[in-house]
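Q&A log
Question type: sequence-to-structure
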Amino acid sequence: GVGIVSTSEDDYHLSFQVEELDMFLSHSWHASWWMKYLTLLFYFNGVPAVVATVVTATFSVLIKWLVLSNLPQSSFMQCSFVFVFVLFTWHDISAAAEFRCKSIFLDKVCIHQTDRILKARGIKAIGGLLSKSKMMLVAWDPTYFTRLWCTFELAAFKYAR
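Response status: OK
Response body:
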């Protein structure tokens, strides 16, 4: 599914063909998975989480001032809960509501990891995939530019523009 962390050896069955990619995710395999996961959560779910938090804070203040002036000061905990909840679940909420999901190239899913022939075919198609990508999101970490493949992806994307 949408927005899950998978430890499977092969998630190729989760991929599907598209005419154009909304985003190509470029990352180093040496970076920690949880930092990449948090990066994606903040990138895709950060704005909805902030909006939901501001709405919650506004309603909390209005209710406290207008209706229940003796309410305990728990708005901070409510807002913190709303922020974390929306940050970690917005992708599921938007998928359930059938909002348009972005098509994202993630190598672990889009390039077969166990079939050598399909893997080679996927690697050879990277240039074409980059040229059909609207944008590239770089999940940078200190090892990113030490990895030749990462540098190639960035250069190829720039060249395709």
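Response note: The chain has six helices and three strands.
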